[in-house]
Amino acid sequence: xxxxxxFLKRKDIEISIRRxxxxxxxxxxxxxxxxxxxxxxxxxxGTQFHIGFLTIPVATIAGTDYTVGGLxxxxxxxxxxxxxxxxxxxxxLVLFSLITVGFASNALGGAGGPLAVLFVAIVAAEVGKAVSxxxxxxxxxxxxxxxxxxxxxxAWWAPALGKAAYSVGYLIMWATEKQxxxxxxxxxxxxxxxxxxxxxxxAICAAFGLTGLAGGAALAGCCANMVGFAVxxxxxxxxxxxxxxxxxxxxxxxxxxxxxxxxxxPAILASAVTGPIATCIFRLEQNGAAVASGMGTCxxxxxxxxxxxxxxxxxxxxxAAITSFDWLGLVxxxxxxxxxxxxxxxxxxxxxxxxxxxxxxxx
Length: 363
Description:
The chain is 74% helix and 2% strand. It is built from 16 helices and two strands. The longest helix is centred in the middle third of the chain and has 41 residues, at 138-178.
C-alpha cells in the first residue's frame, strides 16, 4: 500500500473531491467558456451587427459549413478535456492527447457531452500520467495509452453518461415548467449557492443542459449572489469590490462565509425572491448556451446568453420578437432586484447583529 501511495504522489495523482470536483470541474467550465460560449457570442454579435466575416462560412468540413463562431463551438469537447488535463497537472504528451479524448467523449455523449467529458477525461488523464515517462519510448506509449483509454471509455461510458445527464436536465426543466414557483425558488437558490461555492455552477448547468425557464431561474440565482454580494459589501470594499464581485465572482467571499455563514443570507434570500419572479412573472428563459445559465453577471455572460437565446428563437420562429417586457425582466432579474433586495436584507441583518463591521471585507 505504501508503494502505491508513493507512486501516486510521484505521479501527482491525487484522488480527492477537491481535485476532481472543484479543480477539474472549474477548469472544464473555462474550457466551455473559451469554445462554445465564445463561439455563441461571436455568432450573436456577427448576426446582430451584420458583420460579414463573422456570419459567412469560413470552412466546410464533411459537408458542414462553419463560421468563426461555429468553429469555436465545435471545439468544445477538446477544449474541456485539455482544460481538465491542465487542472490535473498533466505532462505535455498526456495533455495534448486529451484533445482526441475530449472530441470523442463529447461527441458520443450527445446532449450530455460535458458530463461525459468530465468523467472520461479525468480517468484518461490519470492513466496517462501513470504511464508517462515510465518507458524509453514514452513518446509512443503515453499518447497511445491516454487515447486508447479515452476512446474505450468514451465508447463504453459516454452514451450512458450523456443520456443520464440529459434525463436529469430534462426532469429539472420539465418540473420548472409544471411548477414554476416552487422550482423557481429551488433552482435559483441551489445554483446561486453553487456559484459562490468553489464549484463550477457553469459546468454543472452545461452538463445538465439547463436552458429554458430552469436556465432563467439558474441565472436569477447566480445574479442574486454576484450582484448581491457586490452591493451588500460596498461599504467595506467600495468600487473595486463592486466590480470584482459583480462582474467577476462572488466566490471571493468564501473565506468570509466560512468565518460567518450568516453573511450569505441576504444573497440567498434575494435569489429565493428573484427566482420565482423570473419564472412566474417574466417567464425569463435562458435559451443560449447552457453554460451561460450558471455564469450570472460574470463578464455579463448570463445576460448575453439570454439575449443570444432570444435572437435564436426569433430566427427560428418560436418567438415573435424581443419586447420591452423581455428587457425589463432581464434588467430587473439580473441587476436591479438583486441589488435592492440584498441591500435591504443586509440592513436588517446588520441591525440585529448577524453581520458585523468588516465581516464582508475582502483582503
